[in-house]
Amino acid sequence: MANKRLALAGNPNCGKTTLFNSLTGATAHVGNWPGVTVEQRIGVYKDKKNGVEFDVIDLPGIYSLSPYTPEEVISRNYIIDEKPDVVINVVDGTNLERNLYMTTQILEMDVPVVVAVNMADVLDKRGLSIDLEALSKKLGVPVVAISALHQKGLKELIAAAEKATESPRTGTSILPYKTAIDQAVAVLGDEDEPVPSPLFHAIKLLEKDELEIEAHPKAYERVQEVVGKDGIDYEASIADERYKYLTALCKEVAKGRVEREAEKLTKSDKIDKVLTHRVFGILIAIVIMFLIFHLTFTEDLFYLGAMGVNFGDGYPGFITYVIGDEEIHMFEGLFWTDGGINGIGTICANFVVGICDAITAGVGAGLELAGAESWAIGFICDGCLAGVFAVIGFVPQILVLFAFLSILEDTGYMARVAFILDRIFRRFGVSGRAFIPMIMGFGCGIPAMMNTRTLASDKERTKTIRVIPFFTCGAKSEFLIMIAAAVGAVIAFPTDLFVFLIYGFGVVVAICAIIVMNITSQREEVPPFIMELPEYHNPQAKALGIHIWDKGKHFIKKAFTIILLSTIVVWFFSHFNWQWTYLEEADTANSILGGLGSLLSPLFVPLGFGKVQTGSYSWTYVVGSVEGIIAKENVTGVMESLAAGYGFETFAELVSASGITTAGLVAFAVFNMLTIPCFASVATAKSELKDVKTYHWTLIFWLGLSYGLACLAYITFEWVWTLAITLPLLAVAIFCLVKYNMYMNDKEKKAAAESAE
Question: How far is residue 635's CA from residue 622's CA, in Å, rounded to a whole number?
């Protein structure tokens, strides 16, 4: 027997997602709504003691049920067409009037409804209260106070939802236009097929709702004929009447210092005076982000080692084992080395790497004792384990980084960052709303590109999709850490600072690209951006754990599927020549893969890792870059696998042997970070962009920009004196862009003036 379906509906930042996580826990999974790429979250609520089970559907966060965005269409269509057994309408108790606006629309549908007044704990702290019984009586549906963050009132909420499913409910309206609404309902009753939730549809016809006009064109014409004599602009007056009703309702049911609340600064308001300051807000955001990167990637916490603190020989390790004649300290340097204390992410990564190294060494020793052929040992240890374990070894640092970013989001600070950057981004050609999918790019480019569906125009979506890959995702973090470690081995540069600077470089490139597009191919007025800043609150440990688990599961799944397959293929083609003869490690440059890589390597000479700079090793960098287009994790797995194929223990040793310069490594990092993203992101971009032509130009944009900037990075770092040439050329380019923008502005003003006449 299928479970009953419970749909969660509410405004953005009302605590709906927190409630969803509290109800569903680890049962939640993510997909897409049919026909669109808006995220769909479904989970299961189970109460075995009382025998209650619900399939919980988290509808997109929206402000109303008008067809302005795909999310709004999805929510209204799901409630009307899919007919969930009950809708829990989550409202923010601290912003009752605004949240209840959508409630009045949901109540017009023929569906059981329970109103969950969230943030009861915040109300208590402010000395406020809501008369739930009076509110329930006015709305005609059960009302329950909850705190989704602290998981209070959830049992009462589910009990009310379970009871509400026992009997059907007919829609009701708070609007005063009873005659006009009844006439519209009667018109819909004459349709060939029964119209579900006729009251809701009738009111939408009065509002001249686009979806309703499209679905019922004849009914719309008849409704306008019938009510047109009233002389009332229902489209505007209905919204006004809703707010009039809610203003009076909130005065009646809200108790405490409601009248003075607007004059009193809350704790969040006081914090925002500092964190959203016009000047210090941006500086604080930069410092916070650097601290996150420092705690995640550093091998010298707070630079104590650089300041002269003596750490001796480092942490000796607590497990020792012997393979052959070699004594190995399994967790040597786990917590600190002779250079300094490790950060949280580095400690976690060292722990996992220690386990992976022990497994690889044990498997290799076992195969040798069993008398296995050298090719078999190489295939298993270097082809399979080395590539997969290289990826797994970096997963802890990515999860620590993701945990920090999730904490910022859950506390409400990430919304403040978007608010702060709106002031800057608006001048560059996009609203602060575009920053939301951009910042999501730090996690994964796929949901980030999907999130651009909420943006106001095709041009803003195009600009945002094109720069999302420049916000370095978790998969790219792996090879950046790998490259940072190699750079640190060559010139003793801090790993955390290198990764932070590369991340920052990506953001700068994104902003510059948006400016250029906004001046040239994607010119438009910046759409308005209205954003609600949620209350600051402590992150929910359970939800944080679920996020981290989902992220870790994603990488581990890739490690044992795509990356394992890639490393096996790479090992095979790097150890056989065109005559299908097996090659030992020293001869892999003569392999099939070596030949193909060498064929392409001249293309990468301007980037500093072609054959001119790295000799017979050049093909390894080329193969790693090409593999990265399939999946960015492959860069790490393939490079570590190819390094192992040469007999090196790490990529850093391959770097040292190949002779690539620091400038070449920087260019290698820049190219792989900015170039065409993984296949999955490319497919998502194709579905999100407005047409095939825009998609093809986007691919050219990614490839051309990454190649050009990687070339510029190599030249600049290798020969600093070239800045005397590039900087004047850059100044000329900026001057030309400014003049072109002025010319286009004048042209557009003249066109607007002529059209006005």
Answer: 10
Nearest to 117 by CA among 84, 137, 138, 88: 88
Distance between CA 297 and CA 294 in Å, rounded?
Answer: 6
d(CA 525, CA 745): 11
Q: Is the pTM of this model over 0.85?
A: no
The token pair at 124 is 């208590």
List of residues 6+ apart from 100 with CB closer than 8 A? 91, 246, 249, 250
Place of tokens 């993203």: 677
Q: Note the pLDDT tens digit of each residue in 467-495.
A: 998 888 766 777 788 888 888 777 777 87
The residue to which tokens 């479970």 are assigned:
3
d(CA 622, CA 602): 10
Residue 69 near residue 453, CB atoms below 8 Å: yes
| 117 touches 252 (CB < 8 A) | no
Amino acid letter at 570? V
* The residue type at 720: V
Contact yes or no for 488/481 (Cβ under 8 A):
no
Contact present, 169 and 195 (Cβ < 8 Å): no
| Element containing residue 145 per DSSP (H, E) | strand 143-145
Report yes or no: 100 and 91 within 8 Å, Cβ to Cβ. Answer: yes
Q: Strands, DSSP E only, in 359-422?
A: none
Nearest to 14 by CA among 63, 67, 55: 63
Q: What's the pLDDT tens digit per position in 512-548?
A: 998 899 888 888 876 656 666 777 877 877 777 877 7
Residue 373 half-sphere exposure toward CB, CA atoms < 13 A: 6
Q: Are 136 and 142 in contact (CB under 8 A)?
A: yes
